[in-house]
Design a protein that fits this description.
The protein is an alpha+beta fold. The protein has helices spanning 3-20, 44-58, 119-131; strands spanning 28-32, 35-39, 66-69, 72-74, 81-82, 86-89, 100-102, 108-112, 136-141, 149-157, 160-168, 172-175, 181-184, 195-197. The chain has a single domain, classed as tt1808, chain A. The radius of gyration is 17 Å and the shape is globular. The protein starts with a helix and ends with a strand. Keywords: Endonuclease, Hydrolase, Nuclease.
């Protein structure tokens, strides 16, 4: 058996296991690098931020666009399935299966960092979402130093985002196309509305 066949067999098994997995409420499973990683519920503050992001986006998106919390996202062209905190999908997008959508069909993905493990959201996931052709990646980072920040990654090409802009919580965040609207991050409990870097 060659490496490609073995990899395909592992992926088929992991994908089927992920689809059939029945986890307790709040737990999350992701398929990454030939393994399945299972994470416990992140805590009430995280859930509050997921709801705040969803609420902020609800008044921002074009008519008919759908917002999903913790819907599966299969990375196009890769053997990976992530469970972002928020996935935004335009009307008419084909859902590959009842539990996930292909990353190239999503228009925005949002992740909220965890206090004890923020590395995947800050490093691995921006790269994967860029490779998966997600136009906008919204990183909400309440644990960043010197304070809570929101970063918008855009312009994916050749496996990386070529633009990122970071604001302190409380700013009116500019979401570039394909959404092309402002997002009110004051709903995230912010105090400072300065743009931190570009």
């Amino acid at each position: 058996m060659n490496a490609a066949t073995e990899s395909s067999g592992e992926w088929t098994f992991l994908r089927r296991a992920w689809l059939e997995l029945d986890l307790p409420n709040g737990w999350k499973a992701e398929v990454v690098a030939g393994t399945m990683a299972v994470s416990p519920p992140p805590g009430p503050r995280h859930d509050e931020l997921v709801d705040a992001v969803t609420k902020a986006l609800t008044g921002t998106l074009p008519a008919g666009w759908r917002i999903h919390q913790r819907f599966g996202l299969r990375i196009a062209g890769e053997e990976r399935i992530y469970r972002p905190d928020v996935v935004v999908i335009p009307p008419g997008v084909p859902v590959e299966c009842p539990k996930y959508v292909l990353s190239s069909h999503a228009r925005l993905v949002a992740e909220i960092t965890a206090q004890d493990n923020s590395i995947p959201e800050r490093t691995a996931k921006p790269k994967a979402y860029a490779r998966g052709e997600v136009p906008l990646y919204l990183l909400i980072d309440p644990w960043d130093e010197p304070g809570p920040r929101v970063t918008v990654f855009s312009e994916p090409a050749r496996g990386t985002y070529h633009r990122s802009v970071t604001w302190a919580f409380g700013a009116r965040i500019q979401l570039p196309p394909p959404i092309d609207r402002d997002l009110d991050s004051s709903l995230f409990d912010a105090e400072d509305s300065r743009t931190l870097e570009e």
